[in-house]
Amino acid sequence: MATLSACASPPWPNPNSPNSNPDPNFLPDQSQTLDFDSLMPPQPESPPPHHHHSPDASPPESSPSLPPPSLLYLSFNQDQACFAAAADSGFRIYNCDPFRELFRRDFDGGGIGHVEMLFLCNIFALVGGGPNPQYPPNKVMIWDDHQGHCIGELSFRAAVRGVRLRRDRIIVVVEQKIFVYNFADLKLVHQIETVPNPKGLCAVSQLSDSLVLACPGLHKGQIRVEHYAQKKTKFISAHDSRIACFALTLDGQLIATASTKGTLIRIFDTDHGTLLQEVRRGANTAEICSLAFSSTAQWLAVSSDKGTVHVFSLKKHSNIPELEKTQSSSNSEAAVTLSNSSRSFIKLKGVLPKYFNSEWSVAQFHLQEGSHYTVAFGLQKNTVIILGMDGSFYRCQFDPVRGGEMTQLEHRNFLKPEPETAL
């Protein structure tokens, strides 16, 4: 059970009352207060100024003699314009395009196992982690970067496995339960029981007029979808094997799922639970590290421990009625696809393996096998951002017509300091 305790700090900020004295050192041309009506401001046109010392913060530059931190967690913010890196010494926030470090908060030997951004505002959710956690692993700390310290906390009986934020909700994942809180007053509004969920799998829509939450169900291979506006719960039997990864579109209308086999990715309509499309990553078992829809839901990116990032083309929404009529209800791991390229195989069904019916990725990018990569779509058209737990940052572009190997536009190691340039 969760409990709320106040930290020795000013009271919880009022979402409707902008901070009259914002910190001048924090992203001056972005949204600076917990204002839910303006949490998607334009990208800054110039790098943020140098940060001053504070009791809980360190300056952006690091001493060349210090070794780089050990990464514990990587995540993109809700519009995928920025990403957060949690490490054994604190956390850092980066801009994706153009790439640059926006700021960092280094704690004195305290590790952060999870950091969750709320678009580009000053509020973050932190969970302690690493050999010397900055905070107990069973607590979610609400960090206000204007004030430079925590302004509240949520405590649980079990270790926190994941946190998701949106303008009006805080979602906390523990091993077999999910807690949903109202953001304005931290009131608990819903509890959901799940199968054991050590990876903290959970996804939430981000449009203000649509609150959709997806999480593992109570059975192997099952996804539970909560449609809060309609007060409706939908269970989807997505796979025969255990769920390994899933992602929602911004509006929560579509969900992409992968099982522990990692060979097939399935896309479902969350409202009816209808299987709309099935695509194949490969023939061999793989661990799916991340799934990401493009903002228009035209493309789906997939990363795995095989070292290849795939981009798949998704069917248009206008095809959904046709798919609903012809789609099989089978839950097996066999490929089920209705694309034009596969219709010619229907007559040979039972003769050729269903492997040959599969829809394959349009574009690929090859990386080091065995590493963990997180993927998202960039702000530029047909670009993909790839983050590695080794500190690697890639920005790639794919050809939506010709497909094939993506073009690498940029590669950096965001853990290593870069030489300063004169402004």
TrEMBL record:
Keywords, ordered alphabetically: Repeat, WD repeat
Region (Disordered): 1-70
GO CC field: cytosol; phagophore assembly site membrane
Pfam families for this protein: PROPPIN
Record flagged with keyword Repeat: yes
Cell compartments where the protein resides: Preautophagosomal structure membrane
GO BP annotations listed: autophagy of mitochondrion; glycophagy; nucleophagy; pexophagy; protein localization to phagophore assembly site
Residue ranges with Pro residues bias: 57-70
Topology term for the membrane: Peripheral membrane protein
Single annotated GO MF: phosphatidylinositol-3-phosphate binding
Predominant localisation class: membrane
UniProt-listed SUPFAM superfamilies: WD40 repeat-like
Record family assignment: Belongs to the WD repeat PROPPIN family.
Protein name, UniProt field: Autophagy-related protein 18a
UniProt source species: Glycine max (Soybean)
Biological classification of the source: Eukaryota, Viridiplantae, Streptophyta, Embryophyta, Tracheophyta
